[in-house]
Batch of 4 targets.
Target 1
Amino acid sequence: MPSRSATPAREIDLESRIGSHWLNRIGITAVLIGVSYFLKYAFDNNWIGPTGRVAIGLLAGIGVVVWSERFRQRGYRVFSYSLKAVGIGVLYLSLWAAFQVYQLIPSGVAFVAMFLVTASTVALAVTQDAEILAAFALTGGFATPLLLSTGENREVALFSYVALLDLATLAMVARRPWRRLLLLSYAGTLVMYVGWYSTFYDHSQITLTIIFATIFFAIFAIAPLVAVAPSGQATVWCALPLFLALVNAAVYFLQVYAMAEVPDRPLMAWFALALAAVYIGLSRLSQKHYADAEGVERLHFLHLALAIGFITVAIPIRLDHHSITLGWFVEAGVLVWVAHRTRSDFLNLFAIGALVLGIVRLLALDNFDTHQVIFNPRIATYAVALVVLGAIIWVGRSRTDETGKRAVALATIAFNVLALYALSLEISDYYSRAMAAAAPLRYQPWDPTRASSWRSLRIAESFSYSALWMAYGALLMIVGFWRRSAFIRWQALFLIAITIVKVFAYDVSQLDRGYRIVSFIVLGVLLLAISFVYQRDWLKLSQKSTAEGSGGA
């Protein structure tokens, strides 16, 4: 239950905020509305001419900015900045009116004047250590091209000016902990770029446009490396450079991809790999020169993630069909090796991600047209996946932590399931081709010989599945005894249990007498052999059980 003194304190704080902030803003708005009504009345009655109107606006804007300094010096910083916002806004609008409404000055003069207003506001922000003024300056700076637009295509002038604003922002965040300005500057750049692109871009301008897009990308890629860390600010503002790095990378790649009328796939793949190399370099640079010591690891990992992401994207862009799956498997294998050498769990996660992408595509999308058993592209693709899974198992065996053990267990299960599924597919394809050749055709007379041959192939296929599963279960059991791994032996027992169910529930009623006899004899011999090994207690399981029981007692 809150104390009685806490409630009055909150009430006083709310009262103070209403009195100092809300009433301040409402009062300024009321004054501006009143003055605007008076000026409109004066303009409508021609009391003041165009030149006078602009002059009044400029003088009023300058006067309000100068007047606001008195309040700042007396400690009323919030009120002072509110007045400055009004004065700066009046200056921009007055210059806009002088150019667009009354045509009193040419566009060059109006641009220089607005640029001076922006530069002066930046100077005030730096000297007074006021982030809010820097935000006013950026807002006015990005509004300048919109206020002075004549509907003409001036790509070089526009993007050179925007790049200058971005560099100014970069300089400010390198000296002050004003990371929020990066988001404002990037948003302004993106609005300017998209607005120009949707109105003026055509394919003949691709070279120059890509150059400017690359300049903008470079500025905001470097920004997280030089941004000064804020002290005592919310975590969300500390994470802004990381968010900006992620968005900047994605937007730049999509910009370049969209600018090509017919994207050159090999060229775009090389472009993605080049971006991956850039981010690998930035990841190394971030460890040496990043200003925020707490953010070194996060930024380093983000750059690595972006590099891996672009490599992963380059594979489907450049390759086709089954080559994409192989490419992801190879990427996963390389990442497993690098992660093992650098002892990086972060890279292990990306290795698993690439492996999962490859397996999902292999199982759900890849359609192999095989004409040969075992020695075909499908088995080769599955073999690469099994090699990567084997590498994960081999690397994980050296780890003693719970995460490493869990990864080895999952990789072992995936290895066995994938191997068994691949071999089962080979049996299915072999008999599918044989049955297609033996099946009676629809419009041919009934041929008992062909029908009998087709049925014999179905029976042989069913027996082949049982034989495969028994053989694989036996192999797993041998490995389990050899490696002294209960986990592998349990997988063998599970597979043998499935085989037992199939033999007793299906084979006994569907197979011919010869296949039925072989199935039961082979299964029985296998079960007796496994039972004999357990009864001989080669693994000393009974001694372990006795020791655990006495220890528990």
Note: Residues 1-5, 545-553 have pLDDT under 50 and may be disordered.
Target 2
Amino acid sequence: MMKKSPEEKFKFRIYYPWKTLLLGTLLLFYALLTHSPVMQSLLHAPAEVFQVLYLQAGFVAFLVIALTDVRAFRRQQLKLKESMQQLWSNKRELQLKAQTSASHTDKLKSFIGDKLLEYIEYDEKFLHFKSIASEVRHNGVISFDKVQSALLYAKDHSLPDEQGTQATLYSEALVGMRYLWDLLDLSTTDNMALHIGNQITQCEEQVFEAELQGQSLEDLPVSPAFNPRQALIDSLTLHLGVGLSAENPADYNTEADQQNDLVMFDDEHFFRVNLQSCESLLGNANHFVLMLENLLRNAQFFAGKKQYKSPFPAVAINLSERQQYLDLAIYNRGPHIAAEQQGQIFQLGYSTRRVKEHNGKGLGLYFVQQIVQGFDGSIAVHNIENSEAEYHLRLEFADGDIHNLTLNQTLEDGLPLIAGAEEQEQKQWQMEVSKRLVSVEVHRQGDDNVSRLQVNNDAKNWFDPLCDDKPGWQITLTGRKQEKLSFIPLDIRGVEFQIRMPTLSGRLDGIPALDNGPDVDKLDEHFQLPDDF
């Protein structure tokens, strides 16, 4: 339907009854002619034209046309009245819209004005903070040197005690002061990533100079490299207050040059730390510690929630080296990060913890990305999902009997459910064991590896040994005589951060840097070279 124009929508004209007026005039003139023979003779018309019958017929026609015009006039009056009413109603609507728009405009002006004032105030505060920070930095150097000298003197001249508690306290205080100074140093820089990159470049120059002079890195006054394994342990023990113990105590060595593969847990079995052999990194260890502290505090916050608790450690840390790159993976049982948020979580001021009881400042992950870029590394985040699976179980009993079972794992609202053949899905599968069980073999369809679990009197609980950090299932034996076998699919949903950084030898060999920042190579796409003209 075509939209009517304003002229067609509102009509304010009433047409004059020309037909009735004209016909009435002609009828009167005809009536005069019928009663005036003199005028008839002047017209030279036949006498039959002026009969009374024709006059009567004309009068009837006049009445019909007059009634038609009267009806048309009434309809025009009604349309005019409706148009006037519609005009007034539209006028009131326009007035209401104008008032609403004016109100919205005032609110928008007020909002923009408030934001401008906030930005102006923020700029003033930022400039004021920079001036204060430079003064704090200047005075902090003097205070730091005094405190560091006092702690070093106290550490070297403290009275020996049986457990070395005093020396340990002084060492931890010294580590804390150096970490505090490095935080202050980073907080007063204009570009954190560039500042860290410049320091790493200076460390690289020191390494080259030491090689040319035939010196060892340990002989330098300040070591240009650090052990990332020890930095990770220090982050957990000294800064997060986590007590760690090795899965195999014989493998544990607190020396910084320890390179044996090591698996550690905390006292509450909340963290699982897998440390593999890896090379040193160039730069300041405290920058690496700050990155780890922000990632691990984030993982602690989410994984400590009741809805994310699990029978296996909620935070898994894997540190390894591959192709002259340090690989660090931190997994936690926290909420998934939406795809549209994954590109925003590293922005300054953006936080996913916008809830009533906790308001994130949006600084932690921003610091993490800046530090990673300073180390010429890359950082990525992935959501970990549950998946459907088919498990084949082989039960071996003491009398030689072998039972083969097939269990199907399905998903309901993302949660795993398990069921045997022609059974209903449930959270765990159970079976009664009437005789002594010797071993259980678990094979996942599509996987070449087979997990074999030996059953003895001590072991009654097993997790998937092929995936220690994110086990997909748990097997338990309960009862006094271990008469009930349970297979429990585990919910492994969570988030994993993956970080890669070039190692010491990688930087010296000139391997390409991993930078997750903007693609600067595309900036010159729209520019022409001189040869193009």
Note: The first strand starts at residue 225 and ends at 226.
Target 3
Amino acid sequence: MSTYKNLIGKDVNFLTTDPDNDAAEGQIWYNSTDGVFKDVIASTAWVSAAPVITARRTAASVGTQTANFIAGGFVPPSTQKDSTEEYNGSGWTAGTNLPAASYSAFGAGTLTTGLVYGGSTDPSGQEGITTTLEYDGSSWTSGGALNQQRWSSSSGTGTQTAALCSSGYNDGNVTNSEEYNGSTWTAGNAIDTAKRAHGQCGSQTASVLFGGIEPPGSRIATVEEYDGTNYSSATSLPGTRSDMGASGTQTAALGFAGYVDPGRSNNAFSYDGTSWTAQPNLATAIDGGGGSRGGTSTAALSSTGTAPPGLTSASEEFTQSTNVITAAAWASGGNLNTGGRNGAAASGVQTASIIAGGGLGTVLNNTESYNGSSWTNLPTLGTARGYMAGATASPYTATVVFGGATGPGGPYVGNSEEYNGSSWSEENDLNTARGYLAGFGTQTAGVAAGGTTPGPRAAEVEEYNGTSWSEVNNMPAGAIAFGGCGTQTTGLIIGDVPMQGATYDGTNWTTIPTLNTPGNYNKVFGTSASAMTAGRNPSPVAGTAVEEWNGTSWFTQASLATARFNGGETGTSTSGLVAGPPPATEEFTAGTSALNIKTITTS
């Protein structure tokens, strides 16, 4: 009888704890602590990802699962988009706009060597264009024009210097193909079946095309392979469908979502060059979305598209790995005892925080603490107010709050109060009374920035040493700076226009890139190098948008369940808390990845 080592080439290890790295895949070990045999297996799933900034359909999609961009697109009934968005594996951030709006273009290449070609600027969807544009991750450059006007909502393949354009539509389906060498397009052989809205992936010399629409408008299951010279028939899809996302190579492809009569699909299928195999379904049935053209059959990205009753901003990641991935998400927490906490000051961490003051139609002096599950009333502030700011050291039992308004529209005050864990005490006032300001730092090293006095947006900044306030360098511009986080020497603020945000080094201020969705009434939590802002007032209504700061740029994160703005926010970028208004509280948990360890049983 052969042994496990003879068959597999590895021993059955005797361990007290489970391994924690991918090298454990395929191994069997005995966990002496648990008294069982275990192994690690690969899992396959679609996982929710951060939403795009602007929902759209038929955008060109280029790149991999962790380095992708979408460009252009269409918003019914007649709006064409010129905006570009980039994905870093965590969220979406604004890229450089296309020179002109278009939709249903082909896409190829990578995030930093991308190619977008063809498409349409015709609202009726009859005429295509010949435009070719190259993207280097920051700017667009014109390339050689296609020989044939065409568009197709979900195709294109290859690289920036070796791309393929197959079939498409221009007042009817076109039959020819073209190849790009980085400067010019050259006519190739005709495709076997003229089609549009087909999925396509692979390289210029080894591509697979699947599904689509052929005259007079029928969806098809046809699959064709291209070898760099000729097209040939291959194994058909499991059913007729069009507008599918595509990722991978000719012999390891993934086709997903799309349109099937009579509606959208959330199906996914892998192709090994011979046959199609069903994979886990997406959470959302869509068509007209984008697929990660440079992705693989085991690591793909789906974004945007139509998901009735309208467009969706949702993104999903497809992964086959030995890790079980849990997406970043917001979950309901305990309700505030007093919900009208508009403009309250909050501080602490997700499981030990405090919220003070605020107001909605009137101002409040009550204070509440949170233990990770429920809120408890604490001693009240000496001065009822809203639209104020605060600073704290963890735990929240060393908090200072300052400024604010004693009525819905003022008057504004400079009052400072410190909390010691049992009571509030009045301390020295700010030098300039103000409300709608930002605060960060600690009880003994705090910062008050911006706000209104009333009058124009203030740029004044003051520092607190635990006893008194002193004026320091102004911000780059005046702002109603609702959000602040970090320390007195590494601070971050997020305000409204004209100066959306800045960092502070204890002496000087430096402006930072603006949010992808500008607005006001922003709160922010975390550090100057890793922060989040959740819910705000972009229009003038509350929102669910969430963005994360990585020290360089802002990108989208998992959305709130409840629209809100100007409540209390505290915690870290991996474990945050938002509270009021409304009374509902939401808790943020960052995404995680862990080995998919299974216990071996005899059943």
Note: The CA atoms of residues 19 and 152 lie 47 Å apart.
Target 4
Amino acid sequence: MRDQRSIAPEAQTQANTVRTAVFNLLRSFGIDTIFGNPGSTELPMFRDFPEDFQYILGLQESTVVGMADGYALASRNAGFVNLHSAVGVGHAMGNIFTAYKNCTPLVITAGQQARSILPYEPFLFSQQAAELPKPYVKWSCEPARAQDVPAAIARAYYTAMQAPCGPVLVSVPVDDWDAPAEPLPPRRVSRSISADPEELKIVADALRACARPAIVVGAGVDRDGAWNQTVQLAERHNALVWVAPLSGRCSFPESHPLFAGFLPASRERIVDLLVGHDLVLALGAPAFTYHVEGFGPHIPAGSQLFQLVDDPTQAAWAPVGTAVVTGLRHGIAALLDDSAGVQRPAPAGRRPAPLVEIGATITPALVMHTLAQLRPRDSIVVEESPSSRTIMQAHLPIDRPESFYACSSGGLGYAMPASVGVALAKKDRKVIALVGDGSTMYATQALWSAAQLKLPITFIVLNNSRYEALNSFAPVFELDKPVGTDLPGLDFVTIAKGHGCAAQRVSQPAGLKAALQAALDSHEPTLLEIIVD
């Protein structure tokens, strides 16, 4: 990411076109990377492609958006994406939805056919381009005139970066890029949200007065850089800390004595786990995300719920409690300033994970335990292995900020491309993509991008030859075994090598540690397929 004020001298002397105006705008925003899979309606954008930009090619549009998502989260700036008209946006919708749920700032441009032939419904056009990605973009448009494209992209960037962050889309007709346009200077647009001090004082007073508080942390804490403040707040109040259901980030050190564990996405079980706490403070998280139908109260009897969140929509639909819309750093700082002199006994956090026994086969617990021992302390885990998630949470603690990324939407096909984007943005840290066999098949194209970029990513594929998460979930609906969940015959070593990545397979416990160590030591993208029981 480059200095926002630096504009290449040669760019200033070129003819004033929509293309030059847009590239100069991107420079001013600190953007020098474009993720895309080009089609015919995008080609004029890349005429005389600037030398100070890099184009990251993905082999399928959903993979492209996933790479940009990981890059945006890790770089803390909007990812810039270029897609192909209606078909490309359609392919990308799964990860556009995930970016929306992840609150990832993405500026997506989509090609459109020439304005002069749009009335004739030409080949490869988008009939209602601005409507296609809704409701999973914060804003979208197709500018009325070519000269309006730079202003539309500027608005898109400012909107994407305002809390809560999210994806936006601008549809650009193919003949707009060469049209004349005046340079558009960047503006300063505030991104932070500050709550009413009186509202925060209500929360602080209740927190100070309660006897046994619990804190529930969500992705918004890590996203807003409020990790250290959250640790201070928990220690100041001797409050147990839970992770919100299905959170896509780690927002509290999981080896900390006050860490209590992970809340499930079930109303009754959340209430059971929070019994005994007379105050629940949700930070940067919905209150609460549910996966199955539930009944009864949303919080234990005799408890109060307070929520600090940067998303007004989440504040509005929370079923109970007091919600304060605020930036997390600002809100938690106010609570810290107003919590002096609180004295409470220290509660006991979660118990250590049970010892992992080595048997005749490799279990997911053995994989997580071994990985926790071997991985570099500052490594980053990008996870998409739903059936192994609770096992990972027990045996692979994350103890540093900006060290864990996962999909917040529940869709598959995110982690592998996201790990490519994270590795591009965090070149000094090891990136580990921890994925299931079913998840891998949604985004194998990411292996090719990783190989072409020579990124030192370790892809760990847990192969149990089935969609195990669905088998595990089947009893909820009184099913013995659902149809369509077996995945026999997949060879991930051959798939990886075919995309240009080094790869190996391990199926016996005796070979696991050495295979994992070799994959982690590699300075090139490497896939390790682990046959798990």
Note: The first helix runs from residue 9 to 13.
